[in-house]
């Protein structure tokens, strides 16, 4: 099988290549770029090696469709919504890492993204690829909307509580911390080393476009869920997201009950690891890997539950989960091509 | 006036020296250490200069009392509670940067600190030195309990809301992020570079000893306040604390109302700077200085208020606020010795 | 006295303000910017405070000359070479932090900077402001060329060896490591956090424009000095330069002789601190301060001398040394406005 | 085949596990620890997963020999020199990542390491495992001394120049920069986050124990090589070594000649990648992988060659090269178990 990576000169694109070039069912990875036609990938990313023959091809739909079975989009907003329909019409499967197809309601998209939404019919066609909770639909997907980095960490952390109606519906607060690679490779003052190093910043307060994505899924799980508070902070590190999630328990609980619930919920989930009592994951413990590690606390003084969920934003939060969804779509083992341990320290 | 710094080989101690050595009303700074009698400070801290004559003296109470007017303790738990009474009996004023005298109730201290509390009468005698809100008492203090780093950022962020009864009393959640210098200079696996760099950790979940300190003050301001949720995260940076504070508004509010309230509340507070609408402070914007910068958001979707409060944990969170309290105690201008701009970038 | 800072929205500009706003002989600091006429400095740099009244003025030569006694340029290449002559004609003194006037030979400038040189007569008029070694000339300067960051660390480290003819003239190798703030505030892939964090890069190998600046001064001290090897590395930190300097001793020496020489050479230099035998400075030990700290080793196995010289690139390597030169030019104490201890940790 | 990792709770040990647990020819990895008998590895390293059954076993030589075919030592000095002979007598192959067997001359070891050397006969028996240049001997080795991190980067960078007699024999200067993980996992002030972050330090000036290791190999290649100057700097990052190597060309050369020489020298070396003209590697470009990337410059002004050689100190500088040597010893493909791309960014 041949696959295409569109947007190979971004961080998610080059991470896709890291996993797919050794994937046992992938014969060839073709790389496409809108601007660097004919250049070697190693000119943008010397770490990929000068002699690997990774050449960037021109983004011509006909040729992409002719040469590939599955196309991954790791592109800025608006690219995939335009090109995916053309590929799908030709029978190509599309896995979109951008946010173009994640929201079912185009008006919600336009409100939060402040740009035109994709075509309505394709928004409905798209399957939301939160691998652990949507496997049945993902298996049948032709257009897969790969979740955002923050929603992945948050939703995996909240799923057991929300699905089982254990928390007050208006009580969810998510305080998320992210490494800087989530902002991509485009240089800006906000990602300038001297501004970010030795610094913590909050950004897009109450305005992050991942809020409706999270709420959409929560409401599918439990229609009573109310709007959430979701804050995002930039941390002086490259990779990693920690979502610290707070919610009020509806009734008095015990930590043991909660841990049992989480361990059962994720029993068959290869990439979700629930920590034991009193243990909480750090972002570095999933570095470079597709794991989502989760720790839970219950405070008897306040009746509040704290869930700590960590991922590598470029792996489980982007390229890794995309490959996981690719595996599910193809009926392969979910961990094909993803059997890498976290790099520590 | 001569002052003593006990615990001069720790980070807070050496920061005290940075401010006090140029303080216009301080003639001499005497440094004391329990173990390094006769050694130069520059052996521990070469940045202080080999030729400055900063010699570490032996910790002998009689001599300390004879040579100094005010004594600063920047020591591990248990040192100040033992030595301060001896100094106070001799008429010396004490400013304690440790947590020994912050909690009025010894049993609460013993529960959270898991060690014996200071003598009851001294706990009552001690004045809690949150400079901006306790000036009247601080002026008369002989034993000053300098606030913890997290409580300083949190209490300055919450004061206007709590004092004015604007928020649901059981709704306070504080998600705090701290640089590593708060853990002091003692080497441990938790402060080992390779473990902390490119990493975010949560620690002491629901168990941090600063929780009762915060709650004690909140309840003094508003007796209806319920137990809070307070989480602490270690960030891969040396200095800085950001407290992201969430609380539910009792009635519908506007951001303008909130900003007005904060700007009025801190109108005469030299070291508290309230950001304008839509602006939020980053920790680096107070680096090395005694400022506490505050930004506020109100989310109409949820009726929730978000307050972002940042300090340099070693300055406003320790040595700087101690000097500020020293100034208040002596009747001087609050900013004497503290007129340093943040270092940026 | 009133002073002007041209280029106040860059890192060196805002550092100049940090030192000059508390300078005992400066009444007013006027800030100028080519593009942000009328805006508050706090919009670019919130750490400076919203209520300080630091407004950016338009860069109009007449008004600048009318309102100021001394003008500091902290501007990109080419600005000062154009504007300084106009100011000097009006009797204003100019301190230029850019590289426009550092090289006496315009053809050398054009070769290394790859842009047109300043006017010949002004190149000759300009005084090179390596404060410790050029005081006599600096006192009389009307146009002061403030040294580059790398040359400052390197020349202070080499001066005693070169002036006294102790080393083989063709043997000098300087391996320099710098924090990222030296690249300024303009965003680029080379200063993008995710590219720089957890990384070391070498750049401009054998091509750095500071090479001729260093060689020009070395040859003034000792005409036999041959071309040097000078390498620059980008380190994942914001501030600090370490120059590790290697040179072959002409005759067998002892470490004691070398330390004596350095201590004597810098006996009256307030801002140069020579470490004792076996001690070497780290960049953090001068953080935020105007010090240059130096350590020396002599290897009997090879007859090679190693000198380690560290500065804060934005202070002694830019704004701090500019203020030091300002003090010398005005006949004041060299440390006025610069009495800040390094911030540690 | 079963293998043993002794010292599995250190950084090199856990990196060995990362590579060996997926190695196609390894059936079982047994982990041994001197102190944590019976404990799960996940208690020390949560990133390895709680459910992997990685249990730490007691260090009993009989059982180790009975259960394993090859034993890897990733231990502090002195452990391997004591235990390896016992294993070798039983026919077990040993790969030692410590420095115990790297130097042929015990007196040299004792001078630089300041501790007793291993037994003379075993020092002679040990094969130095610089994979690229010692394959023939490594194939026959029963006791393999895996090179140090600094020597690996330095020797791979110098080999073509030294073997071909292109440089002045007394002119070699190596300025090396290392991430902090090279210091291991033991907490100390020198690896304390607040001391290392935003800092560069030089250490062990002219005294590093890797100096004789480098010189021993250089002299085997070219008996005329004189003592070298070798400096080591601690950089605020976790992984990565850059060796910037300076040497004087014997005759005038061209960059093309040098690049040809290096590309030819490493034509069949899977893990050495020579950059093209004008390109230099950064440490992040080999992060987590077994590559050594090399860039070369020639300065016509000075006749000096600069070689830049980068590795991941825990991979090519420790565990990765050990696995590479394991492959060579067993007659397998050199890259088995090591086919991981660098993680970028």
Helix content of chain A: 25-40%
Describe the global form of chain A: globular
Give the biggest sheet of chain A: 7 strands, parallel
Strand order of the largest sheet of chain A: 3-2-1-4-5-7-6
Largest interface: A-B, 46 and 46 residues
CATH superfamily (homologous) name of the largest domain in chain A: Dihydrodipicolinate Reductase, domain 2
CATH topology group of the largest domain in chain A = Dihydrodipicolinate Reductase, domain 2
End-to-end gap of chain A: 35 Å
Q: Which structural category do the helix and sheet elements of chain A fall into? A: alpha/beta
pLDDT below 50 for ≥5 consecutive residues: which ranges of chain A? none
What is the H/E order of chain A? EHEHEHEHEHHEHEHEHEHEEHEEEH
Described by its quaternary structure, the protein is homotetramer
- Number of H- or I-type helical stretches of chain A: 12
Number of strands of chain A: 14
In CATH, the architecture of the largest domain in chain A is 2-Layer Sandwich
> pLDDT average of chain A, as an integer?
97
Number of domains of chain A: 2
Computed CA radius of gyration of chain A, to the nearest angstrom: 20 Å
What is the CATH class of the largest domain in chain A?
Answer: Alpha Beta
Task: Kindly estimate the percentage of residues of chain A that lie in beta strands according to DSSP.
Answer: 15-25%
Subcellular location (chains A, B, C, D): Cytoplasm
Protein name (chains A, B, C, D): N-acetyl-gamma-glutamyl-phosphate reductase
GO molecular function (chains A, B, C, D): N-acetyl-gamma-glutamyl-phosphate reductase activity
Pfam families (chains A, B, C, D): Semialdhyde_dh (PF01118), Semialdhyde_dhC_1 (PF22698)
């Amino acid at each position: 099988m041949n696959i295409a990576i569109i947007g190979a000169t971004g961080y998610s694109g080059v991470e896709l290549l890291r996993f797919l070039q050794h994937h046992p069912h992938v014969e060839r990875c073709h790389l496409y770029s809108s601007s660097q036609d004919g250049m070697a990938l190693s000119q943008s990313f010397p770490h990929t090696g000068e002699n690997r023959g990774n050449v960037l091809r021109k983004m011509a739909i006909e040729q992409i469709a002719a040469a590939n079975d599955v196309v991954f989009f790791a592109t800025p907003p608006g690219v995939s919504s335009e090109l995916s329909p053309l590929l799908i019409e030709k029978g190509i499967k599309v896995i979109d890492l951008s946010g173009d197809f994640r929201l079912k309601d185009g008006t919600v998209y336009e409100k939060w993204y402040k740009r035109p939404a994709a075509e309505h019919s394709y928004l409905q066609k798209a399957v939301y690829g939160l691998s652990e909770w949507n496997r049945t639909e993902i298996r049948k997907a032709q257009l897969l909307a790969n979740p955002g980095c923050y929603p992945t960490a948050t939703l995996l952390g909240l799923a057991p509580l929300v699905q089982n109606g254990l928390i007050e519906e208006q009580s969810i607060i998510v305080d998320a911390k992210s490494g800087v690679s989530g902002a991509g490779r485009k240089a800006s003052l906000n990602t300038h080393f001297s501004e970010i190093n030795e610094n913590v910043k909050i950004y897009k307060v109450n305005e992050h476009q991942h809020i409706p994505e999270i709420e959409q899924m929560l409401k599918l799980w439990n229609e009573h869920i109310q709007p959430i508070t979701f804050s995002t902070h930039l941390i002086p590190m490259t990779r990693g997201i920690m979502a610290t999630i707070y919610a009020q328990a509806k009734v008095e609980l015990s930590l043991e009950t909660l841990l049992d619930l989480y361990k059962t919920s994720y029993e068959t989930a290869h990439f979700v690891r629930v920590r034991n009592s009193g243990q909480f994951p750090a972002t570095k413990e999933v570095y470079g890997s597709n794991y989502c590690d989760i720790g839970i606390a219950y405070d008897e003084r306040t009746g509040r539950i704290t869930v700590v969920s960590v991922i590598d934003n470029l792996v489980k939060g982007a390229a890794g989960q995309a490959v996981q969804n690719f595996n599910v779509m193809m009926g392969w083992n979910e961990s094909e091509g993803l059997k890498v341990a976290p790099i520590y320290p």
